[in-house]
Design a protein that fits this description.
747 residues; nine-stranded mixed beta sheet; 46% helix; 17% strand; binds phosphoenolpyruvate; binds magnesium ion
């Protein structure tokens, strides 16, 4: 294949296919394939290295190197030239390999005789499987054409690996998708779930990577692309004109579908012997590999678009629809690259767990999963390429860990953990009607955070006294356009009905930062968390906030109403927002609507500045709620979405607790009701410390109420306070250690 022509390449590929068709063991197939490739390329050596675990490559077959080194020679990812090809997912082509930086000599292989080296990655949809190498004695540099030819061969090897053609003895030749895999991700929602995989987007299986008739394949590809373009045009004409983001995505699809470069590469792949679907998948694989290395978020998004488009094209070519005929398992755990909040709501409570390759703790899908109380693990690497529909799976939302196809010992330990959690839930149910009264007789009010209608059934079952934070932005985030006043009024009224007279604190629209509305013009801000968000948007462009306030007043229909403004950083923001509300009250009165029987107007304290606001602010506010998620990020200047810095600062840090205590005092001086509604309130140890600092109302996700109440009922706050005072006096950074020791002693 030195002067590679399409026909030469096709001959090699049909040779590979013939090997595949023969009933032979995996090892024998690999041996025959390395011979075929070496012959065709005119090289002395051809070797196949496959991954035996996530970071070790093993020489699995060779023509030309010492046979005794097969299954003996191993290297780590990044080690030597072979390791570097695998790590970077890029070819290395060198006329004089021993002179290359990073070259590592493997004496047992006898490779010192060979000067030139060409290695290409064997990868499938961006997943590393191994490396294909050719070497020769003369110091020749392989032509671009030869590199390309070897990449096509590697693509076929990847497909053959996926189809199980090389299964044999030893870890490197073990069957794919059969062994246990443990994936460490990030916790999105606590809880444990056990079930079977349900792939949101089932993978297309390419069973025929090689094709004999390039003309026929080209026609298939051209027809499928024409169909794809028609589909996209139809989607564009159906898409609502107001949905800018959807339009942008579809326009990007259209651009790719018209892209000459994309088409040309796939035609070239076909000319070399790949089937149309294998050509699409080859380009998709390289796009996925590029995705990992592109730092620019916008470009990465575009590569995602290309990935989605390739999936559509594969479905058209193979006739494999999203509906594979598989039945949703009884205990489905949804596995997806990512999922939108609306789609997740469609699945609803049927799901036992959700596992996402992407997503973020603050993402809308995470918020919905939390509302549905479904354990969620995010950032799970390549789970969608590893998992098969129906695979057993364990989701540990507390630790952010997923066990795919777990071994019996892991599954039984997990079952024990779930049983213990169920037992604890029963214990919590038994104290549901009891107050969160500490041993010294202090009663702490426990409320729940909510944001969806779906949350409301938890109100009676969790034992919450009310809704301490209703995040109204969720209705805006899950829609394609600004909801209308009537719609919102209806929804808020249903929320109040479901609360059956219990207090519901409605927080006005809190958008910006990570909460970007699909229909809002994206703001190009250098630092969105410190940018135009929450009340800043509400005051600068008051139209939506006023409409929301009208909806709330109408929804109350004479019932008491609690309104809270988010992210107030200084006094005048509160007075301005409050004035808007008062004007709407007057306006509604003038229109003859019934006014709320009682009106409470509060502010969220989420920036340290507000703690130092004038006394008049504390007197004017009916209540204040500490938004600990934001307050903590600004107190420590540590991004709440950035795992690396977020965990660096403990909530029980002495300075932070002292600061919270100051807020308690300021509210105490003016007799202003104070609560804490950030996620930390739902952590039992933190909740005890907050109570010891003087907080008397905490609002948290419904599932936390039981554990928090259970611990509060077991402690004496005076003692807890003494432990904190002593720990603070010792000059330590956090009181956690002392608290944990003391709690252990409580039994
Ligand atoms: C907070 O910041 O603590 C809070 C409750 O608001 P959110 O998490 O919605 O920003
Ligand atoms: Mg906040």
């Amino acid at each position: 294949m030195a002067n590679t022509s399409g026909s030469e390449s096709r001959k090699l590929l049909s040779g590979l296919q013939a090997v595949m068709a023969d009933a032979a063991a995996g090892q024998e197939r690999l041996d025959r394939i390395t011979r075929l490739i070496a012959d065709s390329m005119g090289t002395e050596v051809c070797s196949v290295y496959l991954l035996r675990d996530a970071d070790t490559l093993e020489l699995c077959a060779t023509q030309g190197l010492a046979p005794e080194s097969v299954h003996v020679t191993r290297m780590r990812l990044g080690e030597g030239l072979v390791g570097r090809v695998a790590l970077r997912a890029q070819p290395i082509n060198s006329a004089n390999a021993p002179d290359e930086k990073g070259f590592r000599y493997m004496p047992e292989t006898g490779e010192e005789a060979y000067s030139s080296f060409l290695g290409v990655p064997i990868q499938r949809l961006g997943e590393r499987l191994g490396v294909l190498v050719v070497q020769s004695k003369d110091a020749r540099a392989y032509s671009e054409d030869e590199v390309y030819g070897l990449e096509v061969v590697a693509m076929v090897l990847a497909e053959m690996t996926e189809l199980g053609a090389f299964v044999g003895e030893g870890a490197a030749l073990s069957a794919r998708h059969t062994s246990q895999v443990m994936i460490r991700g990030t916790c999105g929602q606590e809880g444990a779930a056990m079930g079977h995989v349900w792939l949101h987007e089932p993978r297309v299986v390419v069973t025929k990577p090689v094709a004999e008739d390039p003309e026929a394949e080209r026609t298939r590809l051209t027809e499928a692309i024409a169909q794809l373009r028609t589909d996209i045009d139809q989607m564009l004409s159906r898409a609502s004109t107001g949905d800018k983001e959807q339009h942008e995505v579809l326009e990007a699809y259209r651009m790719f579908a018209q892209s000459r470069g994309w088409m040309r590469r796939m035609e070239e792949d076909i000319a070399r012997g790949l089937s149309a679907e294998a050509a699409v998948e080859k380009e998709q694989s390289s796009a996925r590999a590029r995705m990992e290395t592109v730092p620019d978020a916008y470009l990465r998004e575009r590569l995602h678009d290309l990935d989605d488009l390739s999936n559509r094209l594969l479905r058209l070519l193979t006739g494999q629809g999203k509906d594979t005929g598989a039945e949703l398992p009884r205990d489905p755990v949804l596995v997806a690259r990512n999922i939108g909040p609306a789609e997740l709501l469609d699945y609803g409570r049927k799901l036992r767990g959700v596992v996402l390759e992407e997503g973020s703790v603050g993402s809308h899908a995470a918020i919905v999963a939390r509302a549905l109380a479904i354990p969620l693990v995010i950032h799970t690497g390549r789970i969608t390429t590893e998992a098969l529909n129906g695979d057993p799976i364990l989701v540990d939302g507390d630790q952010g860990i997923v066990h795919l196809r777990p071994e019996d010992t892991v599954a039984s330990a997990f079952r024990d953990k779930m049983a213990m959690q169920a037992e604890a839930q029963e214990r919590y149910a038994s104290i549901r009607e009891k107050p969160a009264e500490t041993r010294d007789g202090t009663v702490i009010g426990l409320h729940m955070n909510a944001g969806l209608m779906a949350d409301l059934p938890s109100l009676p079952s969790s034992g919450a006294e009310g809704v301490g934070l209703f995040r109204t932005e969720l209705q805006f985030l899950t829609r394609a356009r600004v909801p209308r006043r009537g719609e919102l009024a209806g929804l808020y009224a249903r929320v109040m009905d479901a609360a059956q007279g219990k207090r519901v604190v409605f927080r006005t629209l809190d958008i910006g930062s990570d909460k970007v509305l699909p229909y809002m013009k994206p703001q190009d801000e250098p630092n969105p968390a410190l940018g135009w968000r929450a009340i800043r948007v509400g005051l600068d462009k008051p139209g939506v906030m006023r409409m929301q306030l009208q909806a709330l007043i109408r929804a109350a229909g004479g019932r008491p109403l609690s309104v809270m403004f988010p992210f107030i950083a200084q006094f005048d923001e509160f007075t301005e927002a409050r004035d808007h509300l008062m004007r709407e009250i007057d306006r509604e009165a003038a229109l003859g609507h019934v006014l709320p029987e009682r009106l409470e107007v509060g502010a969220m304290l989420e920036t340290p500045s507000l703690a130092f606001a004038p006394r008049q602010f504390f007197e004017l506010a009916d209540f204040i709620s500490i938004g600990g998620n934001d307050l903590k990020q600004f107190f420590f200047a540590a991004d709440r979405e950035n795992e690396r810095v977020r965990r660096r600062y403990d909530t029980l840090n002495v300075s932070y607790l002292t600061f919270l205590e100051q807020i308690v005092h300021r509210c105490g001086d003016s007799d202003t009701a104070l609560s804490f509604c950030g996620e930390d309130a739902g952590r039992p140890v933190e909740a005890v410390c907050f109570a010891a600092m003087g907080l008397r109302t905490l609002s948290m996700r419904p599932a936390s109420i039981g554990p928090v109440k259970s611990l509060l009922r077991r402690v004496d706050l005076r003692e807890a306070r003494a432990v904190i005072t002593e720990a603070r006096g010792s000059g330590g950074q956090s009181v956690r250690g002392a608290m944990m020791d003391w709690l252990k002693r409580q039994g």
